[in-house]
Each structure stands twice: as C-alpha cells, then as structure tokens.
Amino acid sequence: MSGEDEAAGEGTGADIVYLPRWRARGSHPGAHRGRDAGGPGTFKDQVSFLRLPDARRLDLRATLRDPFEGVHVRRFEARVAMEVWALVDLSASMRFRGLGDRMALAGALCESLAASATRIGDGFGLIACDSGIREELYRPATRRRAAASAAASRLGAAVPSGPSAAGLLAAAARIAGRPKLVFLVSDFRWPAPLMEQVFSGLAFHDLVPVLLADPAEAEALPDWGLIELEDLEGAGTRLVLMRPALRRRWLAREAERMAALGRLARRHGRAPFRLAAGFDPAALSRHLLGG
Amino acid sequence: MSALLADLARFGAERPALLWLLPLALLPLLAAPRRRAPFAALAAVPPDALSRGLAAALSAAGCLAVAGLVVGISGPYRAGERITQTGIGAEVSMLIDRSGSMNETFAGRQPSGAEESKAAASRRILGDFVGSRAHDLFAVTAFSTAPMLVLPMTDRHAAVRAAIAAIDRPGLDYTNVARGLALALGQFGAASGDASRVLLLVSDGAAVIDPRVQETLRAAFAKIRPNLYWLFLRTKGSPGIADRPAGEDTPQAAPERHLDLFFRSLGVPYRAFEAEGPEAVAAAIREIEGLERDPIPYVALRPRRDLTGWAYGSAAFGLALLLLAKLAEVDLARGQPAPAARGPERRMAA
After folding, report:
1. Sorting pLDDT into bands at 50, 70 and 90, what band is A13?
2. Where are the transmembrane segments (chain B) (predicted)?
C-alpha cells in the first residue's frame, strides 16, 4: 500500500499498514476484503445465473464446460471499509517520562493511525479512559481526515490523571457491534482481574495491544545508586538502593510481567506490540502483517 | 527506675525554651529532601529489605540531625554532682609547723649550699606521700602563732601538693600547737564513719598547751578518734621527746615531753617519730603509709559538663549520612543514552 513508499522513518509521515484478521463486514466501499460478494474486488466464486441474474458477468468458460448446461455468473468480493479504534488508557501511570514521553508516544501513534485509516477510507474512532470514559476526548468513528487527526492531537495534549483504567470496560461496551480493529494503548500496569476483563470484553474485535514501555523502567536502570520512587497513581514513595542483584531481580520481574501479558494477549488474538522510546510506523506495520 | 529518673533529672539546658522546637525532629518522617523520580507503578519494584532498612535509617538520621541541632542550640549540660566512692586510703589531716625554726636545717643553721631546711625536706617527702595513693583525702593546716587553714579535706592531690609546696616559705613567729590541733581536728568531716582518720603533726618543737584548752582538745579527740602521728623534726642538740629536763619537770621546761605525755593520755592510737634528718623523715612517712590501709568512702565532685559538643556531633553524624545519601542519588536510566532514532526503513517485501 501507499505507506511503504512514503516510509521515510520520520514519525507520523509514514502510514501504518494493517490487515484485519477477518473479512470485513459492512456496506461502505473501502479498502479491505469483505465477506460479501458484489463489487470490483478479486474473483470469489461462480454461482448460477438464477441466483445472481447479472448478464454482464456471465462466465462463458464455466457455462460451456457445464454438462448440465447451466449458466454461470462470476462473483467478485466486495471491497469494504472498516473502523479502526484507538482505546487509550489515561490513568496517571501514563504520565511517566523516562527516556521517552508516554503521552507523546500515544499521541504520535494515534495521529499516525488516524492518518493511515482515513487515507484508505476507514473510519477512525478514539476513546480515552481513566476510571471512566473521558468524554471530552471521545471521537466516534469518522472518515473525515481533519476530524480524526484533530481528535488524535487532542489526545497528545491530554493530561492523564485517573487512579485506574477501569473505564476501558465501559469503552469495550461502547464499541460493541461489528468487529473492528482495536488498538489498546496502555502501559498495562493494571491489576490482573481488570486485565482479564478488558481483554475478554474486546475479544470479539481484532485486538492489537500496544504496550507503552520505557527503557528507564527496565533495561536502562542504573547498577548502583539511591532512587526515591514516587508512585504516579498515589501509592506513596519508596526508597530503592539500586545494586546489580536488585537490578537483576527487577528485570526478571519485568520480563515475567511481559510474558504474562504476552500469554494473555495471544490468547485473545495478537501478541502485544511494544512501543518504547520512539514511535516507528513501519515497525508497527511489520508487527501487524507478520503477527 | 527512680535511679534512672534521678539520672535524667541531672540533665538541663541553658535555653530550655528552644527545646519546644524538638517536634521539628519528626519532620524527616513526613518528607525527605530527596529528588523524587515519578514512577508508573511501585508494584513493578521487587520488594527489598535492604532498601527498606536504608529508608528507615535515613529517616532516623534526619531526625537525629534536627534533634541534635535543636538540642545543641539550647545548650545542654549535665549538672555537677557529688558521688560517694570507696577506695583504699585514709583521711589525712596534716598539721604543719610554720614557725621560724622550720627554715633552719636539722643542724640548727640557716641552709647554705646543698643543705636542706627542715621545711624543704618535709615538703619534698610529704609531697611524695601525697601522690602515692589515689584515694587518700588530705587537709593541710599550718600553724605558728595562729593556725592557718591552707586546704580543706580534698582528694585533689595536685592542690594538696601545691599546698605542701608552699610550706617552705619563710616561717613566722612561734609555735602555738593547741589552736593548730583544734583547727586540724576540725578538718575531719562529720559524716564518714568507718574511714581511717590520720592526724599528722609535723613540727620541730612543741609548746605548752593551756590546761583549759586541753579539755577542749580531749573532747575533740574523743569525738573524732583519729590516729595521731607526731613527726618531730628534732634539731641536733635540742631536747628530744623522751628527755627529762635537768631541772624541774614542768611543761614550760620540757614542752616536747609534756606534749608527748598529753598525746599519750588522749586514748587514741598514737605514735611519735623523732626524725633527725631527711632520711629519718622519709622512713617515718613510709611507716605511716604502711599503717593506714583501710577502705575509705570519699566524695568525688563531678563538675557540670557541657554536652553541646555531643549534640552537634550527633547532628553532624546524621547530616553526614544524609549527605552521603544525597550524593548517591541517581536518576532512573542514568548513564544510558537516549535510543538513537532509527535509520530509514528498508522497503518491506509485501
């Protein structure tokens, strides 16, 4: 698609290339292979003329080959549009700044998504949640490029403040309906029950978990030194004496968390995409096409 | 418990009003002046006992620093006190003759060259005696015509030696032993019951004791019951203690003999040493030293002690710990370069 030609490596200029896991349903003409026949798409099958009385698409070869002298008509796949949704966690932990800025990353991802989706005629919708849905950032799915990118840039300027991400459950209920491609953007620092609920609430859609990580949380930790950590979600402060042994335990704990998230995400469709320290649309495209 | 309270009660401060600031020492429990690194979720940090202990220690160091500064500013001290302790020794009241004849040598001349006057010899030997045992108590009284209180009963041997060092100053006038004895007896404290008490009379002559005064002295000796030692520095040729006079045997004719008789009649342990030279004096002193070996309770005066240094010292210790912690602070992701922007993507095979 067009994104590959433009992929110059600088942030939002490149398109995200995505393929849904399923044949899209719907009647809006668009860029994706639909479940229904009827359109200028690729060849789908042949049916009897009595089922589809369309003389323009008579398949002469099949008709002549038929020993029972039935008349056959070619059917083609419909190309339909679908909706791409970004569900963004705005709990206070998203305010974390290490080597990168989480909200800036999430904003860049959403802008790129909005541009990529609207360019090929898909709708882009955005829901931001902390403990409830942040209505001022809500954007129902739209094909208008300006509206979509305005919603995405509003998100980039938002300040995460909520104590939890429980609003994602309400967001899952809000986008119920036809299957959609859903990007779940979060750092996934949630309690395990909420994690399970959100993933199963979105299981009907093609769910792409986007894990916002930061090297400063794990592999870039110093070997030695004192750090006073302050929990962004209000769980107090803790003094930590960094030393190689503790760093190893810390990294092991992070790896275990990643593995658990990976297992959960794969059970519900796709492996999570790790977004750390710089958004690269081409990497996301590779992930989406390969995974 | 009460002993502990009594100990606590001895502590005081010069500006106690400032101690109202002490609750400030709890501030480090509320907040620490450390750089805070905002972090997404503390649950990601593995539990670590060492870090917890260190946090507690640093809070304690902060409290210690503030408390030490406040206490230091308020001027803490421990009040002085009197402590009764027990040692081996005796209460020694020295009664030293300062009459003019003490300035002469044992030969009865003015000292010249290497010769030593009686006063200088007794100064030297008594000075050694004072230093030899730690818990002796000494009082020094001098007498000539009138008694002089030189030093009350004390265990400060430096002061005693200084007092003894002063006895070879040129002496005065005559020998009036009765009033001297009364004052020397008065030097013994009333309290200490079982202590061994020694009255050491150093003189080179004697005098008549008025019979009226004799009764008073007898009463005082009976009450205090000291061991009495008379170190008689006899000038060559002068009558000794035991010498009967040629003529009439009256106190006026032989005051030494009659003073000796008076001492014997007191009913207290008594010995007289007749010394005709510095060696004899030293031998007599050694003998006295050997005789007087009893446990003695003595009162040590512990002076008021300024505790400001301790307070500031502990504050400095706490501050040093905090400073070390401050210097050890790092950021998350210290020393790691920000990841470089990725180069242009290669074309992807569709």
Report:
1. low
2. 53-73
